[in-house]
Structure formats: C-alpha cells, structure tokens
Design a protein that fits this description.
Layout: E1 5-9, E2 13-19, E3 26-33, E4 36-42, H1 44-64, E5 86-98, E6 103-110, H2 117-120, E7 135-140, H3 142-157
Helix pairs in contact: 1-3
Length: about 180
C-alpha cells in the first residue's frame, strides 16, 4: 500500500489530549500547522514511554548543548482542536535528535497488523519509503518538546486514582483487587 507521510515542521500546536471520562479515555496526539490539522490515536502507555524518552533526550541535550534549552515554550493548556478525526492508530514511535538544526523529530507510524515481530527486526520501520503504513512526522524545538511532555504528564496523572492495596486504577464502582483475593475495593 502507498504510504502517506504527514509532515509538520514547527507546527503551531503539538499536543496530547483525551476524549472521554477517566478509565474510558482515548488519547490523541494532535498537530496543527496553519489550517492543516491531524489527530492520531495513541495508548496511554505510549504517551508515558514517549515522555520518558523525550525527557532522557532533553537531559542529554542540556548536558551537551546547554544553550539550546535556554528558551522556554509556553505549555498549551487548550482543548483538542475540532473536528477530532482519527487519522490512524499509532503502532510505532520514533524519536530523533537533528543536531544540525537543533530540532527534535518525532515520528508516529500507523499500526500495521501485517508486520509481525519477526518482520519488524528485518525492515526499517520508520523509513521514508513510498510503501508501508502511514506516518506522522513532527519536527519541533527542544522547548516545544519540553512543553509537550509537561502537558502530557499532567494529562496522564489526571486519570483514575490508584487502589491503595494493589496500585491498579480504580473504576467509579471500585475494582476487583488481586490483593484482596478478588473482592471489590
């Protein structure tokens, strides 16, 4: 299948947001550049992993190039832009430091059920080839990446409260707690 590559260089907005109530939220990554808008679905765990990896990258950048992070970006607290139309569900996320331009490239590839774990080791998943799953490529400054991460962590932490016994998230009706031998808490 012919791949569509959505490229957003220095977008006006690049955020993570949710739709729905805690416990039933759908996470979206959204980029907007002028009138172009794209929304892709991600798992909460993917957002957490992305924030961790970007945080590590930012610490390394700060250590090697302290002046790059001198300028701070404002955290975008606004809601997701409407209409929220799911372009694709993200399967693989790539993160690249572009040293020449001092920018960060984040690449979100559509979930492709035809690629098995064994196949993924043999092919270049995030290549710019004309064949393969669709790709969202966003190029942002380190300051924008830092603001993205701060918003994302606030959003992730705004979910359901953890059970005091097992740490799993509580539903409004409680949950079957494994540490309470299957009784509801």
């Amino acid at each position: 299948m012919t791949r569509i590559i959505h490229l957003y260089e220095s977008p006006d907005r690049f955020i993570v947001g949710t739709v729905g109530e805690p416990g039933e939220r759908t996470f979206f990554i959204q980029a907007k550049e002028n009138r172009r808008l794209i929304s892709v679905v991600v798992e909460k765990s993917q957002v957490v992993a992305l924030v961790e990896r970007v945080g590590f990258l930012l610490r390394e950048i700060k250590r090697e190039h302290p002046n790059v992070l001198a300028k701070k970006a404002l955290i975008d607290e606004g809601a997701l832009e409407n209409p929220i139309i799911e372009e694709f569900i993200v399967g693989i996320i790539g993160l690249i430091w572009l040293g020449d331009s001092e920018m960060i490239s984040m690449e979100f590839q559509a979930l492709d059920d035809s690629i098995t774990a064994q196949d993924s080791e043999e092919i270049d998943i995030l290549s710019d080839s004309q064949e393969g799953p669709d790709l969202l490529k966003v190029i942002i400054s380190p300051a924008q990446a830092e603001a993205f991460c701060l918003r994302a962590m606030r959003l992730v932490n705004a979910g359901r409260q953890p059970c005091t016994f097992c740490g799993l998230p509580l539903d409004l009706r409680g949950h079957v707690c494994p540490r309470a031998n299957g009784y509801r808490r």
